[in-house]
């Protein structure tokens, strides 16, 4: 979870589709390799551990207790975060993109994206309202393609030519193609050519709404498509779905144990197949976007409610490995989870070597090496997963107060961090300062605010109980608001 904060803080310095692109963004900086290195193993490791602890809860408490626990700790926080946190992420991202479009002076892009404030500011500064954008299409045409009546009205009010001819036709042709009668009516009322036959209706035009399904603004509409994007909460949605898939398997296993009286050794028998899952991960990796046409490292990200099939299968295999790992034992009868990463220094060293080779093959050798690149990327994920499990077992298997505190706070920090990170990235975006300094400032400020909010607003409140269970205050400690209230009362008494 904490690595996710650093990863997202670094993305503004890595040329990508991230909402904030820093003025120091470069494909050749050290932060780029850090982003790829973290992305290559972070979520695979998370889902291995998720599968492991899902199986642990089932074995120790039963299926009903597991489902209740996952409902309280995963499903409820997910729903609340979608309602309360995701809207702030959308706001921060839109704010950042609009400001960058305004700074760039790209009127056509601002019109297409619906940034009315940016469009008005550019026009006030003397921008040519009919100047085509990078794709040769003027702002009014793009506003019609976007299906944005308010933007169309704004441009028409500011003097846009409704009859401007492009390689794709006029703006009214775009409105007709996508079945947007209100925009077409506004354009005709402003003086555009009326493509309707005499005394006819919009539906009488031969190409009316033909682009609606293929690529228009109404394409892909359905109940799930109208829901907000999952953003950084996609992993919780995946985990919910994985637990729902795990539940019937666990129920069947419970029934078999009770009815057939399967012994402990037979109950561990499925765990023997977990090693087959390691190479199987290459199959979904091969079909991901970072394939023969686009050079990309690590798994894709799926932030829609209907998950990408390749991404879903990829992480499901890691989750299944973790679930099987809980019951696995070595030939000496020791739990595999305790011995899997015992040579952690060798595993992490091998992971570093594989990472260097994988990056070279992925980005320098071309699409014909795609199968090798995918295999190396998967090998890196597994090596880091096993190596880090062994490293932490070797040095942090006991109880540590600071580690416990950071562990407890990490769930809250990750849920709440993205809005703050985006705002900080936008704040420092144009500073003439080295990228490393700006990145460090973003991480330090974000984590400081998040830790303070966890301590004073979350840890000992119902929110903290929901995320981590009950946490008792140290003896004699009182909440900060009670101390403030006491001081105020004492002062008033004097």
Name some characteristics of this structure.
494 residues, mainly alpha, 2 domains, 0% strand, elongated
What do you see in this structure?
The structure is a single chain. This protein has helices at residues 2-10, 30-39, 42-61, 63-84, 86-104, 107-113, 116-124, 139-145, 149-157, 171-177, 181-189, 234-260, 264-267, 274-280, 282-286, 309-325, 336-339, 344-364, 370-396, 401-428, 435-458, 462-468, 480-493. It has two domains: 1-28 and 402-494, no CATH class; 29-89 and 234-401, no CATH class. It is elongated, with a radius of gyration of 27 Å. It is 63% helix and 0% strand. It has 494 residues and is mostly helical. The protein contains 23 helices and no strands.
The quaternary structure here is single chain
Structural class call reads: mainly alpha
Number of H/I helices: 23
Count of structural domains: 2
Q: Give me the Rg, rounded.
A: 27 Å
Mean model confidence by pLDDT: 86
Helix content: 55-70%
| Rough outline | elongated
Helix/strand order: HHHHHHHHHHHHHHHHHHHHHHH
Count of strand segments? 0
Task: State the major sheet.
Answer: none
Strand content: under 5%
């Amino acid at each position: 979870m904490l690595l996710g904060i650093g990863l997202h803080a670094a993305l503004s310095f890595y040329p990508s589709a991230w909402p904030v692109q820093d003025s120091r963004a470069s494909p050749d900086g050290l932060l780029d390799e850090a982003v790829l290195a973290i992305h290559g193993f972070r979520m695979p490791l998370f889902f291995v551990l998720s599968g492991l602890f899902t199986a642990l809860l089932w074995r120790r408490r039963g299926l009903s207790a597991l489902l209740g626990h996952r409902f309280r700790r995963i499903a409820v926080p997910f729903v609340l975060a979608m309602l309360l946190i995701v809207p702030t992420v959308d706001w921060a991202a839109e704010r950042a993109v609009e400001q960058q479009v305004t700074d760039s002076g790209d009127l056509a892009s601002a019109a297409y994206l619906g940034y009315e404030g940016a469009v008005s500011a550019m026009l006030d500064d003397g921008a040519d309202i009919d100047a085509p954008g990078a794709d040769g299409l003027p702002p009014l045409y793009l506003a019609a393609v976007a299906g944005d009546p308010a933007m169309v009205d704004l441009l028409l009010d500011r003097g846009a030519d409704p009859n401007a001819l492009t390689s794709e036709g006029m703006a009214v042709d775009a409105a007709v193609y996508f079945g947007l009668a209100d925009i077409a009516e506004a354009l005709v009322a402003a003086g555009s050519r009326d493509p309707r036959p005499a005394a006819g209706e919009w539906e009488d035009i031969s190409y009316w709404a033909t682009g609606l399904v293929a690529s228009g603004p109404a394409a892909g509409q359905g109940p799930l498509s109208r829901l907000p994007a999952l953003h950084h909460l996609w992993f919780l949605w995946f985990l919910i779905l994985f637990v729902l898939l795990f539940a019937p398997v666990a129920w069947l296993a419970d029934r078999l144990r009770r009815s057939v009286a399967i012994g402990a050794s037979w109950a561990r028998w499925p765990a023997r197949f977990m090693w087959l899952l390691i190479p199987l991960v290459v199959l979904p990796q091969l079909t991901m976007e970072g394939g023969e046409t686009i050079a990309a490292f690590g798994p894709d990200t799926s932030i829609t409610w209907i998950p990408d099939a390749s991404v879903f299968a990829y992480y499901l295999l890691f989750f299944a490995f973790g679930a099987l790992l809980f019951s696995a034992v070595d030939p000496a009868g020791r739990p595999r989870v305790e011995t899997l990463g015992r040579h952690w220094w060798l595993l992490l060293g091998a992971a570093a070597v594989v990472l260097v080779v994988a990056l070279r093959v992925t980005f320098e050798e071309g699409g014909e090496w795609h199968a090798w690149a995918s295999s190396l990327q998967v090998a890196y994920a597994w090596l880091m997963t096993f190596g880090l499990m062994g490293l932490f077992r070797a040095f942090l298997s006991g109880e540590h107060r600071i580690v416990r505190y950071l562990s407890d706070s990490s769930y809250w920090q990750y849920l709440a961090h993205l809005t703050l990170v985006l705002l900080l990235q936008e704040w420092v975006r144009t500073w003439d300062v080295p990228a490393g300094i700006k990145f460090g400032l973003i991480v330090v400020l974000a984590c400081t605010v998040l830790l303070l909010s966890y301590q004073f607003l979350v840890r000992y409140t119902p929110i903290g109980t929901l995320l981590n269970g009950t946490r008792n205050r140290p003896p004699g400690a009182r909440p900060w608001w009670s101390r403030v209230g006491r001081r105020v009362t004492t002062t008033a008494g004097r």
